[in-house]
Amino acid sequence: MVPSKNYFSRLAHPEKHHLADPALVTALLGLDEAALLEGESGGVPIPRDGALLGHLFGSLVTQSVRVYAQAAEASVKHLRTKGGRHEVDLIVERGDGLVLAMELKLGRDVSDDHTTHLRWLRERMGEDLLDAVIINTGSTAYRRPDGIGVIPAALLGP
Q: Which domains does the chain have, with CATH numbers?
């Protein structure tokens, strides 16, 4: 009998839902590029760092990652332990069970707080975690001293 690689026996069950195309939301809300960048649409303020842009950013990155993962015959999941103590935005799992973990952050700066769950996952999975990265809106990719990669969303590609 081969031991199971299920590191997470107590995972939360509700899945995270994303839009098929975040551009649909902007069209339905009547938002254009200027409205999103300037933070206002017809006198109605649009929170530039709040929930709307964060959800749109998360859906856009998730859509891209799913396309690339499908081409590589990998699956994309979301990790949330019961009670929400630990959460990782995207888990890309290859057929051999090895994992790439991704946190999504709307913003350029990455702090130690942003890497907490990725470091927890790395301690838990060891060599079965291929890499852990934060996808952000910065302009430069780099590796932090703790080993976590930081990749601008604009650099994602197959």
A: 23-155 (3.40.1350.10)
